[in-house]
Amino acid sequence: MGVTGPPGPVMDRDEVDRALARLGAEHEAIETSLLALQDHAGRRLLEGAALTGTTKERWTSAEASITLLWAYFDAYTDALRSARDIRSRRRWSSRDDLVELTELLRGESVTVAGSATATANAPTLAGSSKLSEQFSLAALVERMNELYASSLDMVVAADAVWSALPARIDLLAAELGRTRQLAHSVGVRPGEHPAGDDLERITRTLTTLRERVVSDPLAFWVPAQGSSAPGGGRPDTTTYDREARALEEVRREIDAVLTVRQDAEARLVKLRDVLSRADRTLAEARSARGEVLAKIAASEVPAVSGPPTALQEQLATAADYRRHAQWHRLSPLLESLEEKAEDELLRARESLTAVTAPLAVRAELRGRLDAYKAKVARHGLAEDPFLVERYDAARRMLWSAPCDLRVAEEAVLRYQRAAADLLSPRVPEQGGPNDRVDRRGES
Question: Which of 105, 197, 281, 367 has the most CB atoms in a 10 Å sphere around its CB?
């Protein structure tokens, strides 16, 4: 150092004292940080874990960096102690002391020797034939900060994943176990029901996921974009979240099966009732069709289908599923049958309505004819020969079999028009009292 001379101007006593105070504060801060890293729970876990993949590679490097950090810190400590010793020789440092202090505090005066173990995997000296490095104190602090940040980032990331995922996976696995027991109790088993197959797949996925998370946590770490702070990022829970959703879907499916088990008998009874009502309605429609064909002439009557035998067979299958506690098969069958049974009852009712439409038309015409007769009677015209004649004609057509609805409707309309003429006051234009007699003679 005496040969090369101090780097730049020689520091005065005040500059030396300020530099020593700053370096002392940095030394204390670095020591506190290193001790915190040494005691970090994540670092202790990494030391005892059987690591694989990315985490194993990065921990090998980080572990060497931490070892090298302590070597750097020891060299820094020795250099700072030497500077303090020189400064403490005398109250007013001589020029030789100041030259030596300037060289020590500003020059590349710190030599760090790296052993093969400490430097084999650290991001310094590795791949180099050099066995030592020269630093100024400022450069050494900067280098320690770099190594500390990269090591802490790796430790914090691994610890964050271990803190977040394994416990959640264990809770989900416990829920999975309860769900599997419940599924087994209602017949939802692998190879027999899709939900049983899903449970097996979820079990395998969670087992593999936990093993990977424990051995390679950094494979499940997503760094924060644009963040340079150690530990900036979040655990990747994509696989966990997907399996949690899948388990929830299976749980809903099993709940549906449980619901079927609880009210299967009531639903089967209701199904039998709906299909029985559909059968009775179709039987009524077939009977009504014969009546319509006998009583109504010149009318197209739709055919009536037979009872739904396919639904009866499926209902028998559903009852068999219930007897053998095959709830996972009964659940979808009941849902399908309930929809089909309601459709069948609606079809039967529509068929009855279509078949009996001519009878409804005849009943409406009869009602209309009697209503007008009552109206005429209230006005004292019930015995009017012209109205009696037209009433009797319409009545014969409506109460005879077979009834021609078209002709009967025309007869009712003629009676309505005749009654309306008598009930509506008319003012004679020229003819006088014979005018009404003339209108009666109209055809």
Answer: 105
